[in-house]
Specification:
alpha/beta, Rossmann fold, 2 domains, four-stranded antiparallel β-sheet, 10 helices, 40% helix, binds adenosine-5'-triphosphate, binds magnesium ion, ATP binding, ATP-binding
Length: 258
């Protein structure tokens, strides 16, 4: 399988097993530069496992992951994030006892080299870095309507607000590609459409996304193409209309429920 020029990320023949169980069984897919790619499939299809592989949280037994033309298969989470690839988690990972603002400041990229010494010595460079992170965090929180809650504990937020905080934490790294694992799960419909608008506005600024969702309204509104995963494999891909009309997709979902 060749890497097309408009692919920002490409997954080739990735396998993940947990003991006897195969979670990913030779997955192939492409995430287009500047696009919003959808990933759907029944519970247990391997969607989060795939994101774990892409984010560097999960080792895999075979295959390759290419990001912007580079083979990142053996890169650490940190190196992937530095290169512009980051993700959110299905279960939000905010630090509940810290404030909303502190959560964002902790997610700011580290200064290269000697960060600790700069901080200890309170150098001008460290102060400038902190001021930049603060301005970025404030701008993000204002943009998503959470600035008024900046000094509240993160565990006081609603489920939807936690999803927004999780997304903002990923955005502190100024990524090029963000993988969103169920950004609409447990979120009220008004906030779902606000999150969708926010994703669309980030896309208009040049950011690329892949979204795992069970909320088909969100997938239909944002994503093209849509990949359908079932039992660790890509069953089909195409526009939302195309994949929804696919007989095996209907069967895979019904099979997941039965
Ligand atoms: N660390 C692990 N150890 C053992 N099995 C695992 C592990 N992680 C995932 N699995 C199994 O791998 C399969 C795929 O899990 P995964 O979380 O990727 O599914 P998913 O498509 O994200 O499902 P959902 O829509 O419910 O989030 C499931 O059967 C799950 O139980
Ligand atoms: Mg999942």
């Amino acid at each position: 399988m060749s890497l097309q020029t408009d692919d920002l990320l490409s997954v080739q023949d990735v396998h993940v097993g947990f003991g006897e169980f195969t979670a990913l069984d030779g997955a192939h897919l492409h995430i287009a530069r500047g696009g919003i790619t959808g990933m759907v499939g029944p519970n247990g299809a391997g969607k989060s496992t795939l994101f774990n592989v892409l984010g560097g949280q999960q080792a895999h037994q075979g295959g390759r992951v290419l990001f912007d033309g580079q083979d990142i298969t053996h890169w650490s989470v940190h190196r992937r994030a530095q290169a512009g690839l980051t993700r959110t988690f299905q279960i939000s990972r905010e630090m509940g006892a810290l404030t909303v603002l502190e959560n964002l400041l902790l997610a700011a990229p580290q200064q290269p080299g000697e960060k600790l010494w700069h901080a200890l010595l309170n150098t001008a460079a460290a102060r400038q870095h902190e001021a930049q992170a603060m301005a970025q965090a404030q701008a993000l929180l204002e943009r998503v309507g959470l600035w008024r809650l900046a000094h509240e504990r993160a565990d006081s937020l609603s489920g939807g607000q936690k999803k927004l905080l999780e997304l903002c934490r990923a955005l502190m790294l100024k990524p090029r590609l963000v993988l969103l694992d169920e950004p609409a799960a447990g979120v009220n419909p008004v906030l779902v459409s606000e999150i969708a608008d926010f994703i669309r506005s980030l896309q208009a600024e040049g950011m690329s996304f892949a979204i795992v969702e069970h909320n088909m309204d969100m997938i239909a509104a944002l994503c093209d193409p849509v990949y359908v995963l079932a039992q660790g494999k890509v069953l089909t891909q195409g526009s939302f209309a195309q994949v929804s009309a696919h007989a095996q997709v209907v069967e895979a979902y019904l099979g997941g429920v039965a």
